[in-house]
Amino acid sequence: MSTTQTMSAPASHKPESLRSSVSSSYYVSPPTPRRTSSGWSGSGRTSKRYSVTALYSMAAENDVEVQDDLAKAQRKLRDLKTKISSQSKKNFVLERDVRYLDSRIALLIQNRMALDEQNEVASHLDDAPELQEGVFPDDRKLQQYGNLFFLLQSEPRHIAALTRLVSLAEIDSLLQTVMFTIYGNQYESREEHLLLTMFQSVLSAQFDSATEFSSLLRANTPVSRMMTTYTRRGPGQSYLRSVLAERINSLIEHKDLNLEINPLSVYDQMVDQIEEDMGTLPEGMPRRVTAEEAARSDDVRAIIEPRLAMLTEVAESFLRTIIDNIDAVPYGIRWICKQIRSLTRRKYPDAPDQSICSLIGGFFFLRFINPAIVTPQAYVLIDGTPGEHPRRTLTLVAKILQNLANKPTYAKEPYMESLSPLIDNNKARVNQFLNDLCEVSDFYDSLEIDNYIALSKKDLQLHITLNEIYGTHALLEKHATILAPEKTSHLRILLNEAGSAPPMLPRHENRTVELPLYSRFETPVSDLTTSLDVTQSDILFMETKATFVQLIRTLPPSAGAAKRPLNLSKIADMAATLKDVALVRKGIKALEMLRELAEQHLVDPRDRYNPLTEEVEQELAHLGSLREHVIEETDSLEGVYKTICDHNDYLRGQLETYKSYLQNVRIQSGGAPEKSRSGGVAGGVGLVAVGGKQRKEKKKQSLGPYKYTHSQLEKEGVIAESSVPSDRRSNIYFNIVSPVPGTFVISLHYKGRDRGLLELDLKLDDLLEMQQNNVQLLDLEYVKFNVTKILHLLNKQFARKK
Fold first, then answer.
1. Is the peptide bond preceding residue 222 cis, with omega within 30 degrees of 0?
2. Of the candidates 180, 81, 84, 179, the residue with the CA atom closest to the CA atom of residue 647
3. Which of 115, 162, 368, 517 sits at 20 to 30 Å (Cα–Cα) from 308?
4. Per residue in 291-333, pLDDT tens?
5. Could you give the 3-state DSSP secondary structure of residue 110?
């Protein structure tokens, strides 16, 4: 299917107005209806006509020859939006590194052992410099990738299908490429609308495959990860900063305000305070009680009652702020909410409104609002880290909002039931808010014109890394038979021409390149009259208007071109007699277009060339107020850009913290990582046959060997399965050595032989990760170890005191 066919909108989805369809920094006022001698009326212009108006107006906006204050302000705004998009991508990459290291550090801490990190972790700790700019090494391959990525961008169904095929381990890399590169210009309407089209396809498939209502959008899946990632783009961060930052900061200023309402926690805090004040507890007052006993305590209830009133007030202030700022919610987030409602009603026509609202709230509150409330420092909504009491209050506020959005359940946290009056009183209000979120217009008409503009452009390109290109190519190649089953499909043709995906590059060799995008299967649209169902006269009228607006903005103020009432023929003459060659050409062209319009009876020279003059005046009036809007938006986005940069600093600080922690581990354990028996840095699970010279162990750090018989390990459950014949098991034993902390060598021996039969090199954090992923068995060829049991044995035998 061609790009044009794919992007055409169903008639049922035409928007009521194109006001939201034009670039956020520009809006073209619809013309005033007016009858002319030809009988043509502005009131009869179709939405297609408005789209063409938008096309010419946006072209004038981007004209480099215009140097007035508005043009300068618009260029500054566009540059700022580009910087925000670029910085958002850098933050996403950093967040992936932090999340990865966070999980690995958690494994180390949970096991309470100091470990050397394996090679993969060490690579994440390298001071990765900013990606260098480069050029693609092969021009022919560059064009092939330009064709491929144009297809991926302009036909979102391919990416939508791919996101449903990849694993959770692969989704973050794909999301980086999709959210921050292919559709990385977060403030450009075409890319944003194509991305939302992709979301619609993904969500639709998710709903189609759902087996029961309760499973919709709940699990941690690639789809849910996509939705969360979308909220982390620039517009989402802008909303959080403008709406929530002040409310959160005003709360954390009250560092001593304790609003804990969990009876057990309140009792423990009360006991600690009594001990601190009196030195001992009163007779008969137990140090520890059950949750039920704490809830029955009169003293505890007396403490909680005023806290409930205060917490209710705080939660209602947050809710009021969110509801009152519904118009500030980014269009894309509201549009996703709209799709959730629409798809739910289609899949489950009998579903009650409350159930539908709970799905919308699961996205809006659980994946967007609440993470920022619970960890505002991670979103750079505050300076520093909130104190213990404000942090707990923010967590409780998030719990309240989630209960308001979902059907509240108090089984896990019975104390939250004390807030049920607040939930009951605001439930209808929140449901109305969630429904109101969905009330936004669609964008299909504007997407159609955006795609025609894109096909006409010669400078469409992506700022992309080599590994993003290769990684996307590899995923497409892996799932090609599902994504493009027909050999004649455009995607299959391009993949066949591209060949096999190149291997991923090491991080220090990765480069950023400019990838020009080309439409392999479409010719640029030059005849808009056929494509958009408008007449050649409409095109001429719009082009003439855009030319005069541009002339008036370009001519020096001293010329008086903008003086009302406008004299279009005089303006064109003025431009045609200047020394500037470009202006002379435009002036002559403008005079010619006026003559053609008059000949076609579309304007009346006796009536100051109306209706053209009136529409030029309307657009100039709009441009006059537009500059203030552009400056205001620039000021707002500068704050967003600062927040995103601050977030980058925060993430780098987290990486440095992890780096320091692991460096201390290395110091405590006596040095750098050991070389493994296979020649690389120790890490991973590798089975190697023993032969040749006996390898020397590093005596300084080595613990062991400790000897275990086959029967001993079998009795303790460490050996889960064994292929050693029963009559030979008494002759089998195992030696376990720890050359450095966290690194182990398990060797299998047979009595009477000098050398072991097999060795197993492994790292403790690999075992921990296997345990986390529910991997039950570790294969040593002749025997299989129970992962949990071998972990217990290693901890018991090799635990070292710090």
1. no
2. 84
3. 368
4. 899 999 999 999 999 999 999 999 999 999 999 999 999 999 9
5. helix
- Strand order of the β-sheet with 703-709 is 686-689, 758-763, 743-750, 732-740, 703-709
Classify 370 in phi/psi space as left (phi over 0), alpha (psi -120 to 50) or beta.
alpha
* Pair of tokens at residue 47: 């939405």
Of 542, 532, 521, 523, nearest to 456 by C-alpha is: 523
Q: Strand pairing of 686-689 and 511-516?
A: unpaired
The Cα–Cα gap between 574 and 569 comes to 9
Which two structure tokens, joined as six digits, stand for 515? 């990838």
Kindly state the tokens that stand for 170: 């692969």
Q: State both tokens at 774.
A: 């529910």
DSSP, res 211 = S
**Torsion angle, CA of 712/718/724/730, rounded to 10 degrees?**
0
Q: Of residues 744 and 477, which shows the higher confidence score?
A: 477
Query: Tell me, what DSSP letter sits at residue 681?
Result: B
Tokens of 540: 């001429």
Residue 495 φ/ψ, nearest 5 degrees: -65, -40
Is the N-terminal amide bond of 611 cis, ω within 30° of 0?
yes
Q: Is residue 746 a contact partner of residue 734, using CB atoms and an 8 Å limit?
A: yes
What pLDDT is stored for residue 553 in this prediction? Answer: 79
Beta strand 719-722 pairing with 703-709:
unpaired
Hey, where are the domains in the chain?
Answer: 13-25+40-65+527-563+567-607, 232-437, 686-798
Residue 72 has φ and ψ, to the nearest 5°, of -65, -40
What is the value of pTM for the model shown? Answer: 0.65
Q: What is the pLDDT of residues 154-184, one digit of tens each?
A: 888 999 999 889 887 788 889 889 988 898 8
pLDDT digits (tens, 9 = 90+) for 750-787: 887 877 788 888 777 677 777 766 677 888 878 889 88
Let me know: does 33 contact 42? Beta carbons within 8 Å.
Answer: yes
> What would be the CATH architecture of the domain defined by 232-437?
Orthogonal Bundle (1.10)
